[in-house]
Design brief:
The chain is mainly β. 0% of the residues lie in helices and 51% in strands. It starts with 11 loop residues before the first strand and ends with a strand.
Length: 585
């Protein structure tokens, strides 16, 4: 009965049009030939109307294939502009789109000159909801048998007609017959706006299956709304209500609020007695304490946020107990302070140096550090004695006090890599001070500074004699590395030698602008220089003839070049060597 089926099977609406929320069938008839018209969406402020503009009972024709109009709720109205015509105006009401649920209403007009508005208003077995707006006002005070499950059939009819007299015939689904005596005589009763009028009609036997019919109830001229009842059948009724402490049950004029068995004899407006036995159970309200420990503040179930201890606040949880009664809860709140921790460290260090992490000292706090490379520590101020590049990143500390009040802080550690050095060393020959050391720095943090133990500050030192030499290279992050080198004195061929430096700077300052082959008592010489792609950029067979840095008329880029040297000395020794030459600008 409650479902709205929005199933539209084709129906014939001859010469119709729609205006606002009103649908008219003019001049001819609405013909139902297996169709179901579903009215939906009407409100008290904006009714839905099907208007039949045919002033006689033939305005709606229902063919053998059937069909009906679903108009649950008095806001979905069939308006028949019947004027002064008399006769049986059959409103083909039904429920949803089920053919078996055809429950027509017949308004047999015997006198009067008004149109007729009708709709149905379905309810549950407690006959709710009541109609909220009719031409006599809302049904606001239900009493007596019409509002009783024992007597009322589950449906209202909203009928609006003025200065009209008619015989009324109602239909209903048998399964809607909710009375205790469904086969007794069914009568009709009208709500006059303040109370229910006396039942009318001799009555029609009720049904519990199929479709039942009540009426006709002749000569009616008061309308809207109507209900069907089975009056005056004395019954004995036992009810077993369960209520909560503080509530009560009213039976007739008696009110009960304690557990017990109570018997009342009631008489309705028709003089029908009912003996009601009430087995009343009263459940107590539940009480309890909500113990909470919170950090800083706590928002309770009453919506209040507390920042200090509280043991007096209460809240009622409606229906919160196991029996469904209210539960009264008292708050027992302890507020703990939230720690405030700050993390710090020697945040930018060189690879290999110690990482020193520090956290604010908080009385009674425990600390837990986590960080890169799987680092963990429960010390307040932990250290990593020797750092690697993988130790750089975000370190986090959690300081916890009491039952879990905690604060978190972070610090970022940057680990700068140490510069690495590659070097080229040329020994002295025969004590002539021809030794040379050149270092090349590999680091992402230029520029670099050089500090040699002989006072030099360049990447290459020359004219060196036998001995030890040390250089410290520092990058832009102040990270440094120190290397030591040894220059040996080659005395195997002191009278004859051949020598090639490992660096030159062809910058046009007439100082080390080319790289020659030096030597003495050289009989044969082959000197070749190649770039990193294997191209021959220079060759000569003469001493003191060197490369000026140009290849194919273009000065070459700074870099490392490879040389191959073959020489035959006058003392009979053969020299074959290769090495790197650094072109520096």
């Amino acid at each position: 009965m409650k479902l709205l089926y929005k199933l539209f099977i084709s129906f014939i609406l001859i010469l119709s049009y729609q205006y606002s929320n009103i649908c008219y069938g003019q001049n001819n008839s609405i013909v139902l030939d297996g169709a179901y018209i579903v009215l939906d969406g009407g409100t008290a402020a904006n009714n839905i109307y099907v208007v039949v503009d045919q002033p006689n009972p033939s305005g709606i024709v229902r063919l053998p294939a059937g069909g009906h109009i679903h108009s649950e709720s008095q806001y979905h109205v069939v308006k028949w502009l019947s004027a002064s015509s008399t006769g049986n105006y059959v409103f083909p009401f039904g429920i949803g789109g089920t053919a078996a649920d055809y429950i027509p209403f017949t308004f047999n007009k015997t006198a009067g000159n008004s149109s007729v508005n009708t709709s149905t208003w379905s309810t549950n077995i407690q006959n709710s909801p009541h109609p909220t707006a009719t031409n006599v006002g809302a049904v606001t005070s239900m009493s007596g048998i019409t509002d009783s499950v024992l007597y009322a059939i589950d449906r209202f009819w909203d009928i609006q007609a003025t200065t009209t007299t008619a015989d009324l015939t109602f239909s209903y689904k048998g399964t809607e017959n909710t009375t205790a005596y469904p086969n007794s005589l069914v009568k009709a009763q009208h709500w006059n706006g303040n109370a229910w009028d006396a039942p009318v009609g001799t009555g029609t036997a009720g049904v519990t299956t199929g479709i039942g019919t009540a009426g006709p109830f002749a000569g009616q001229n008061t309308f809207s709304p109507w209900a069907l009842i089975v009056p005056c059948t004395p019954v004995t009724f036992t009810q077993n209500p369960t209520i909560c402490q503080g509530a009560n049950v009213t039976v007739g004029t008696s009110t009960y609020a304690t557990t017990g068995v109570f018997v009342d004899t009631l008489m309705n407006s028709l003089g029908c007695d009912s003996i009601v036995t009430t087995n009343l159970t009263v459940n107590p309200l539940a009480t309890g304490t909500d113990t909470q420990i919170a950090c800083g503040s706590f928002t309770w179930i009453n919506g209040t946020t507390y920042t200090t201890n509280n043991s007096t606040a209460t809240f009622t949880i409606v229906g919160g107990s196991a029996t469904g009664c209210d539960s009264i809860v008292t708050l027992n709140l302890t507020i703990q302070n939230i720690p405030n921790v700050i993390a710090s460290a020697n945040s930018s260090i060189c690879e290999g140096q110690a990482i020193n992490l520090m956290a604010t000292t908080i009385a009674g706090a425990s600390y837990q550090w986590t960080g890169p490379n799987g680092f963990t520590s429960s010390n307040q101020n932990p250290s990593i004695n020797t750092s690697g590049i993988s130790n750089g990143g975000i370190y986090q500390v959690i300081a916890t006090i009491g039952t879990g009040c905690a604060d978190t802080a972070q610090v970022s550690i940057t680990i700068n890599p140490l510069p690495t050095l590659t070097s080229s060393v040329v020994s002295d020959s025969c004590g002539s001070g021809t030794g040379q050391i050149t270092v090349t720095v590999n680091s992402p943090n230029p520029p670099f500074t050089y500090s040699w133990n002989n006072g030099s500050t360049t990447p290459s030192i020359t004219d060196l004699s036998q001995g030890g030499y040390q250089v410290t290279v520092t990058d832009n992050t102040n990270c440094s590395v120190t290397n030591s080198y040894t220059i040996f004195n080659n005395i195997d061929a002191c009278n004859c030698f051949v020598y090639v430096a490992n660096a030159f700077s062809p910058n046009g300052d007439n100082n080390n602008d080319f790289i020659p082959v030096r030597g003495d008592c050289v009989k044969f010489l082959s000197f070749k220089i190649f770039n990193r792609w294997g191209n021959l950029v220079f060759e000569t067979d003469k001493l003191n003839d060197g490369w000026n840095g140009y290849y194919k008329d273009e000065l070459q880029n700074t870099g490392v070049y490879v040389y191959f040297l073959e020489a035959t000395l006058e003392n009979g020794k053969t020299v074959k060597e290769s090495g790197d030459i650094s072109l520096i600008r």
